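INFO batch 0412 | record 1 of 1 | parsing
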Amino acid sequence: MLYFGMERDFYSKLDQWAASDKRKPLILRGARQVGKTYGVLQWAQKKYSKVVYLNFEKDRKLHLIFEETLSPQKLIAKIENYSSLKIDPEQDLIFFDEIQLCGTALNSLKYFNEDLPNMAVLAAGSLLGLVLNSEPFPVGKVQFLEIYPLSFREFLKAQGKDHYLDEVLSGQGEYLHDQLIEKLKHYLIIGGAPEVIAHYVTLRNPKSHSDFLPLRKKQEDLINSYMADMAKHCGKINSMNLERFWRNIPEQLARRKEKTSRFVFKDVLPSKNKYSQMSDVIDWLDTAGLIYRIQIANQGLSPLTAFTKESFFKLYLFDTGILNALSGLSPAEIINYDFGTFKGYLLENFVLQSLIALYGKKLYSWSEGTADVDFIREINGINVPIEVKAGINLKSKSLQQYIAKYKPKRAVRLSLEYKKETFGKREAVSQRRQVVFDFPVYLCGERKIWEET
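INFO prediction complete | emitting tokens
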């Protein structure tokens, strides 16, 4: 499917990889349907003289190429015969897709690195399949790049409106605030799946909740494909447990009184009520990229991981659109911003997936006594507490307790409010010795708000 020429943020990382003189074969990792294949093909066709694309799921005969040899020179000769394309190792790209289905192809990346380092080789595949593969993994001989759903900026870029964020960041964009809040609601509904966003773009400027119903059908189709993946790898009984657990996460997030306590295991799976009985299910979903596990620190000191327990964590879904579809939250409720306590968790999930796409998965929550802060992330050597507010009420008792006890140099509060003083001149902000910085929540994926003091 053509996704309307969507420009992805990870293209710049692919550019860096392609230009490096220490380049190794690159494996793209990420949940299914986040745009790995389409993104690579769109980028590569502009970058290389020729792209040789091999999909091990579509053509199982490809496996035969790797049965007798893993020599890159001999493999290239076989691939040329198969594809009827002449391959120039200095100018062309080989792209192995669904590589987890051919363990010998995965193992061959080691020899491409050792014997033919000038040949640009990319691979993509299921996160879970790569982990479960029985063939030797080319440890130390490959590089990795994590691919996530489209960010809010990428969502706006697909509509030619990403400059709205730049206007706000410049301090001149207050007039765009309401439009960005409206776009944020749309993003919360549909999430970052390229196929869903592509269909959204064709709607031009949807306003009625009924405009979003066909998008919900696409989300349900994606959910069914994830369920099928569970059954393929785990069998019927285990996949039923995986599905029950996965579908329980929105319910857990909606329990406001327990939002920062550990995940409540009781009544999630039949005859199981302990972490030790469900750890394999959690690990499976985590490895498949379908959930994010956020450990809860009981102190705000470094390193945060030293103050966590394995069974104390919060779970979120990898995409807000899938979260909505699993929870049954209607588009109308989100457009009207009328979905009770759940809106807080929906925004938390949005902030979480934005931060992970920006900085990776080393993100924590904090809970001490009756106080709790949604997230803590180490940025430029300091722990930054992050509070997510679902409305414009900025009272943050727990955040103030954290600040009083641990005296962070910087704290960030995200809400639906636009505060002019946040976007004042840097010198003025510095003179106020400001600790808590208030930003509209739609800016949470912008590196500038996290790294400027």
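INFO post-check: The longest strand covers residues 371-379.
INFO record closed
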